[in-house]
Amino acid sequence: MAMTDTELTLRHPELGTGPVSTDVYWKPEFYERELRAIFRQGWLCIGREERIPAPGDFFTKELPTFKLSIIVARGKDGVVRAFHNVCQHRGAGVELRDAGHCKVFTCPFHGWSYNLEGELQGVPDQKAFYDLRREKLGLPALACDTWEGFVFVNLNPEPAQGLREYLGEFGAGLEGFAPFHSPTTEFEYTARIQVNWKLMLDSFTEIYHVPVLHKRSVASSICGPNNPYGRVVDVVPRYPHRMATLSGNPEYQPFPVQGLAYGLAAGPSVTSGGSGSPEDLPAGVNPARDPLWTLDLNVFFPNMIVIVGPGMYFTHTMWPLHAGETIWQMHGHLQPAANAAQRFAQENAMVELRDAVMEDVNTLERIQNAISQGLCDEFVFHDHELTLRYQHYTVLKWVEDFEKTMSAGR
Ligand code: FES
Ligand SMILES: [Fe+2]
């Protein structure tokens, strides 16, 4: 049945249809509440498990939002664990490399060492210490769990929900998506942008802007005569997460160099315009079973988007620094290149993504500037900007619910 012009939002009456205040995108007081309620309580993805396939493999990850450094290591028992990268002698950073393989982590200051399970192992000249309680001097552990190869941590040592419960039906629907389990070549882009973390998420989760802002780059892979204004196929809110499905343009004609790159590539890329084989997909991927399916935008509350398409995925993660400043990280996962031609195709995919993101970012800093000066007090959302309306609703609800629970527990 054809969709009417205003229908998606009406399916979720709790969201309303009116304008929403832009306060939550720039006010420092609200930002502090978000840090306490959301970023210190929610599960945060800090990387992929395939970076550490064998016992003794580790990587380190900075969490710029809290100026934290975390070690993620695979123990002798194969379990992935996360620790604060802080020596319990006098607080130095223990592991300064980005990644590697070791039996113990040795602090570069005085040489205390910790095993892969975070326990204190060696203390030079231990006899000269008074009452050294070794069992209390391990690296501080974080709550850590993995899902479909993604490594998550929680800054609350006793999270209100385990990771699977937190991801709920939303996560269950994506389990088994084949590219999450295939070997990939990872690439990363990162930038520090003067914008609120939620506005950054917003610009990657609606496509109303695609035929206009991206008209010289990625627009024609999604928007053609069948979808001139950038409408989505569907939006599925699964509190506190959300997802949108997009169809591709069946009349898409890549530019000549793009066409060459897609022909040579080892696998699909974000703008190659392929459509999936719906019967092979987990229920939560292209849940509408749209025959022209090209991408799903899955938002893992609070700060990660996993964009999946036929045979591929990539992620955006936002790490807020202040109410109006964010570190953005994009991780692409492409099938490994077997020859120079496939390597060229990878490079093309990376550059296409980078250029499209730069188009988005160019609009964002001006928006932040305008709202923080009171020049745009409210956002007026289009029906197909429902993921944005849902984010606004979700963030407010999560913060208010958390604060109520805290005051009830006092
Ligand atoms: S601070 Fe690490 S050994 Fe002294
Ligand atoms: Fe965009």
The CATH homologous superfamily of the largest domain is named Naphthalene 1,2-dioxygenase Alpha Subunit, Chain A, domain 1
Strand tally: 19
CATH class of the largest domain: Alpha Beta
Q: Hey, roughly how much beta strand do the residues contain?
A: 25-35%
Q: Mind summarizing the main beta sheet?
A: 7 strands, antiparallel
**Gross morphology:** globular
Examine the secondary-structure arrangement and name the CATH architecture of the largest domain.
Alpha-Beta Complex
Task: Return the CATH topology of the largest domain.
Answer: Naphthalene 1,2-dioxygenase Alpha Subunit, Chain A, domain 1
Look at the structure and give the mean pLDDT: 94
Distance between the termini: 52 Å
* Domain module tally: 2
Order of helices and strands: EHEEEEEEEEEEHEHHHEEHEEEEHEH
Specify the helix fraction band: 25-40%
Secondary-structure content class: alpha+beta
Alpha carbon gyration radius: 23 Å
With strands numbered from the N-terminus, the spatial order across the biggest sheet is: 2-11-10-5-4-3-6
